[in-house]
Amino acid sequence: MTHDQEPGSPSGAPLPEGVGRTALGVALARAVESARPDRLFDDPYASVFLRAAVAAENGPRAPRAERTDAWAAMAAHLVLRTAYFDDYLRDAVGPDGGCTQVVLLAAGLDARAFRLDWPEGVRLFELDLPEMVAFKERVLAEADAHPRVERHVLTADLREDWAAPLRAAGFAPEQPTAWLVEGLLIYLDAADAAALLDRLGALSAPGSRLALVRDGALRRTREMARRDPAMAPATRLWRGGLGRNQAQWLRAHGWLVHETDERQLCERYGADRVTDGQGFLLAVRPSPAESAERPRRAAARLLVLDPDGSVFLQLHHDAEVGPHWVLPGGGLEPGEAPLAGALRETVEETGWTDVVTGPELWRWEHDYHRPDTGLVRQHEVIFLASAPHRDPVGDLTASFAADGILTCRWFTPKELSGVPEVLWPPTLVSLLEDLRRDGPPTEPIDLGYVPNQYPGAE
User: Fold this and answer.
1) Which residues contact 107 (CB under 8 A, 6 or more apart)?
2) pLDDT of 276-308, one tens digit each?
3) End-to-end CA separation in angstroms for the chain
4) How far, in Å, are 51, 361, 427, 431, 438 from residue 434 at the CA level?
5) Of 71, 120, 149, 376, which is the most exposed, with the fewest CB atoms less than 10 Å away?
6) Which domains does the chain have, with CATH numbers?
7) What's the pLDDT tens digit per position in 195-212?
């Protein structure tokens, strides 16, 4: 059904109170967007839900002229969120996604089952409170709406055990699932949000996916909403959500998490559609075999110190670990000696050709995710080196992009001890203290295998 093929207008249905009312704000944003000639999506059912709400005794009354700056900012987010999650679901059930089930938690007035094209064999489950389900199903029935996918609708309080009714409706935990938690977590407190994500994880077979709004991405918009009396019916229901870094929480619970930032969203949807540092999380559930039987990757790095003892580090981002500071260096080429490889990589990443290298200091093993090869176990050798205190030289844009380097800088010992992100090796602060006190070890120190750490996960 296209925007020009508008569904019928239902006569009205009882509208739920509380959180159910917020679904109308989402429907309003989607209806306005669907009327634009340059729309990012087309949701003809959004206006149907709005007409039904107005026809209901307790329908909304606010005219368009009274919309505030806070509402405009929130509506822009709701539009981008809808477009991003549309694309996420298309990818998840597509040939490269492999998900055969879709679960929409707190589905609200979501009409994706009716407006998106779905591959054969996909099953879609919608969960929400009984009052919301009753309103939505009555409106869709009066509009003679027909889903384009096998659709199952369940009533459930997501603060309680919703896994049992989901299984009873035919959900198969052994099959890859695309989960969508759209705008839900903020209405839950920390304990309920964690319990929901725990249940979701327990039902997620290898290959399952989960999409969320990145926490902190809407800080300015949410503050505007809290100060706007017109937004009070929604904001007074906010409970804060997980209360911890969502990406790191998910990583600590077995997910690989890819973060989509404002720059990537601008490239995809246009800079005029992206505001307030918006971002999303895409989490993927790896198989136990992928996690346990990782291919070996040999690497080498340089501990580069300046004359005052500051250390040079690079900030990387990884789906398994998140943001982390590492020493310059990287993977070895076939047959390459560790010191030669560490020096070659350092020159490529800094432009420095006068680094003075010293003895081997440490060896260790750790796990991470490479975009090109997936999960790996890296066996790393670290050498002592020295260089003048300076920034990298030359145009290193391509090198930074190829190696996933976000930024780099020098750290004094005091600054290094206060770094909030992961350090690789994690014991780097104490290792440097030992090095300054005792000098290089007579034999390289083998740190062994070091499990990943996830600051803020618990």
Assistant:
1) 126, 127, 128, 136
2) 778 999 999 998 888 788 999 999 999 999 999
3) 46
4) 71, 11, 11, 5, 6
5) 120
6) 19-287 (3.40.50.150), 294-449 (3.90.79.10)
7) 999 999 999 999 999 999
